[in-house]
């Protein structure tokens, strides 16, 4: 990069572009042996000492003077109280967002189904909600009320009877917007604990914290490491990498808009990634000029500057076909199709967490209130995973109900295959149900 | 246990029953530091040396005299050849099973959807298949053709263009039934590699093995450990524990049938778990007598005997309500409701991988040919996870397409919430789209 530029410029037609792109995208979360051992110790301690361990860790890590576990429990009334401590405008915005998120997610509910075969055999799938879900909410600066809505509402729409939230309150700092969001989203219980100890408590339960079936929500490296370790004992959501946006623009959107869309990712943290693809080289210059002018006006200028310098790019593509090819290669978390006719491109997009279509659909709208979830697959995992959704809080049981005739027919097939696998008790169990001809 | 008995007898009304049940169910896969390091080394080696590493490991672990990578590739024609090397009866059985599995799984296909709001804003979900799936098939004795069908067919039904299978052939041992099943299931490419090296190759790709997006299928501790490590780079299915069956019987099914159903789990391996619940104590005696008589007639008697002794149980329950409560606590992989009216119990079953209803529905029918998948959540993970299905090979992208009016309305809400989170670039990006009143 030349001095004074905000971010790198690449050309997708360069011979070494694929290598450059790989370097730009490369990201592997550091698995530090020390952190790993520290987390394992915390989990063991919470499993063996329960509440006492939670109290100790909360004193130690959150600087809270806690005497007993009841000091770490926020009753539902405290959440309701938060609703009176935020502004009316904020409350309306949260309620509007919640209502839209609920409406969208209701479309994701999966129903049980079954069908009956000619001989009376019934096959189907029974869909049921989890019994209890745990929601991790970070404390301090990364404590986002929007994340409370996005994580808790799908669970409630799925029909999960009990949603338990944990949120650390370092030095007693309570975020009223977060509690208000919890009240609106229907969170049932809140514990003011955090870190690996909160994850361990949710996974294994303590005297006060009920064990949950699945833990969702973002967190720091300790939280992510703990989630990895309890995976299998409970379900977890994807372990998120840094947030990213890929904008494809035909060069006809206001360059200030595009610059601000890129900033809205870059301001998240220094590792966030903002990339713009356009076939119009002049437009890339215009966006860069906008960025030069607007960057100094950002509250989070320093974070955005580092993110753009280290991980951002403006990429010149030959045409829209190449833009789509690069997008599919990246499999971005957020994809903006800031073009005249985004419907034309949509069928060609194979991998993306969320697709923001047209010039008016700023990614920020999806972050807060459009309706779809803002918990999305990062770091190329959109190749094989989906936004957080109601389906993450439902599970399926297969249903098989054979009629005597069905069991007899299927028994013959099963017998041949089981014997082919030398599993003769399987075969004999099936053969008992074969009718004598 | 008294000497001479086959398995333990418990009473669900005993005061210490919960503790006994916990002990019976307790199972944690051993995470051995040596295996872990060995697997990490193998992954690193395959990432850096590609095919050459695969050739070395296959020589070393599978005792194969391999000269070049092409010796480890089975073309589609070789799979077709296998169809001529199995019996006509076996081929028909495989084809019948495949057709039934395909028919059931077609019901699981999820479609894209969208809806339009009053102001023209469009919201939706685009569902697409993975680009490429990898299927691990164990070699030697645990090489099951039925697993090939159960893993490959959902991927193909989902529309995955390329399904790549790996199967080790220790000392050149090729299982023709496995290759025939691959041909029938529509597997596209087969590599005769196995172990952690095969998982690494599928996750990262080599000169010959294409990188996949998701790896499914069972394997030994090296395979399971490798899957855990590549999770995040690719998707994986659940890491399976030992297989289990829970039978609830009202005491009116032929005790020989129930004994053989329990054996069909127990013969899998020494860690497999077979449990029977009945309110009829005499029936438990009858089943035990059947087991005493039939166990010596099993080909896999020794495995079943150890499994039943170490992990099996016949449990006397007070009534059906208690049976259901115990079943929900166990969240079994396989649940047989061997009762007169299983429909009555079904709505009360909250957690189970697959539910086999009525006296005729032997679990073995589901293992091979009923239609539903036999890859099911084990070790209580049915509390939060589902059978392998088409949904494991599809992913979703959220769609947001705001009209100018929609963007303006949503922009106001997003602005309030973003400013509440001190993310002002988010707010400004949304505010650009607000119309002047």
UniProtKB/TrEMBL annotation, chains A, B:
Q: Which UniProt keywords apply?
A: Amino-acid biosynthesis, Histidine biosynthesis, Metal-binding, NAD, Oxidoreductase, Zinc
Q: Which reaction does it catalyse?
A: L-histidinol + 2 NAD(+) + H2O = L-histidine + 2 NADH + 3 H(+)
Q: Which family does the record assign?
A: Belongs to the histidinol dehydrogenase family.
Q: Name the EC number(s).
A: 1.1.1.23
| Cofactor note as given | Binds 1 zinc ion per subunit.
Which residues does the Swiss-Prot or TrEMBL record annotate as the active site? Answer: 333-334
The record's listing under Gene3D superfamilies reads:
1.20.5.1300, Nitrogenase molybdenum iron protein domain
- Enzyme class, spelled out: oxidoreductase
User: Quick one: which residues bind Zn(2+)?
Assistant: 265, 268, 367, 426
Q: Which GO terms describe its cellular component?
A: cytosol
Q: Which residues bind NAD(+)?
A: 136, 197, 220
Residues bound to substrate are 243, 265, 268, 334, 367, 421, 426
Its annotated pathway reads:
Amino-acid biosynthesis; L-histidine biosynthesis; L-histidine from 5-phospho-alpha-D-ribose 1-diphosphate: step 9/9
Name the GO terms of the biological process aspect. L-histidine biosynthetic process
The name on file for this protein is Histidinol dehydrogenase
Q: Which domain of life is it from?
A: Bacteria
Picking any one GO molecular function of the record gives: NAD binding
Q: Which cofactor does it need?
A: Zn(2+)
Q: Does the keyword Metal-binding apply?
A: yes
Q: What does this protein do?
A: Catalyzes the sequential NAD-dependent oxidations of L-histidinol to L-histidinaldehyde and then to L-histidine.
One Pfam family from the record: Histidinol_dh
């Amino acid at each position: 990069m030349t001095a004074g530029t905000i971010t790198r410029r690449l050309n997708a037609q360069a011979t070494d572009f694929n290598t450059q792109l790989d370097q730009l995208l490369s990201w592997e979360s550091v698995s530090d042996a020390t952190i790993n051992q520290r987390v394992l110790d915390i989990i063991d301690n919470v499993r063996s000492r329960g509440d006492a361990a939670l109290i100790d860790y909360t004193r130690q890590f959150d600087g809270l003077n806690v005497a007993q576990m009841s000091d770490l429990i926020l009753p539902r009334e405290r959440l309701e109280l938060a609703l009176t401590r935020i502004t009316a405008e904020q409350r309306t915005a949260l309620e509007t967002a919640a209502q839209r998120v609920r409406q969208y997610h209701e479309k994701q509910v999966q129903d049980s189904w079954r069908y009956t075969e000619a001989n009376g055999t019934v096959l189907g799938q029974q869909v049921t909600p989890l019994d209890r879900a745990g929601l991790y909410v970070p404390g301090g600066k990364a404590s986002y009320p929007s994340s409370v809505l996005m994580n808790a509402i799908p669970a409630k729409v799925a029909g999960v009877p009990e949603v338990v939230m944990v949120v650390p309150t370092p030095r007693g700092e309570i975020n009223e917007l977060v509690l208000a969001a919890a009240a609106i989203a229907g969170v049932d219980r809140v514990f003011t604990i955090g870190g690996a100890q909160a994850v361990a408590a949710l996974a294994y339960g303590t005297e006060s914290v009920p064990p949950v079936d699945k833990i969702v929500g973002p967190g720091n490296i300790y939280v992510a490491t703990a989630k990895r370790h309890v995976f299998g004992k409970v379900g977890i959501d994807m372990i998120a990498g840094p947030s990213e946006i890929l904008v494809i623009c035909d060069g006809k959107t206001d360059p200030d808009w595009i610059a601000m869309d890129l900033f809205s990712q870059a301001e998240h943290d220094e590792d966030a990634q903002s990339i713009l693809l356009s076939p119009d080289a002049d437009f890339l210059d215009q966006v860069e000029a906008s960025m030069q002018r607007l960057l100094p006006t950002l509250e989070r200028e320093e974070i955005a500057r580092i993110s753009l310098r280290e991980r951002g790019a403006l990429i010149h593509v030959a045409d829209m076909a190449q833009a789509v090819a690069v997008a599919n290669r990246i499999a971005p978390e957020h994809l903006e199709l800031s073009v005249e006719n985004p419907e034309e491109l949509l069928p060609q997009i194979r991998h993306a967490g969320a697709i923001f279509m047209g010039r008016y659909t700023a990614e920020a709208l999806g972050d807060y209130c459009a309706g779809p979830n803002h918990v999305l697959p990062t770091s190329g995992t959109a190749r094989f995973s989906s936004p957080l959704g109601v389906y993450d809080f439902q599970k399926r049981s297969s249903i098989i109900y054979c009629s005597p005739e069905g069991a007899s027919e299927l028994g013959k097939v099963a017998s041949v295959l089981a014997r082919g696998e030398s599993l003769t008790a399987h075969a004999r169990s099936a053969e008992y149900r074969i009718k004598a001809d």
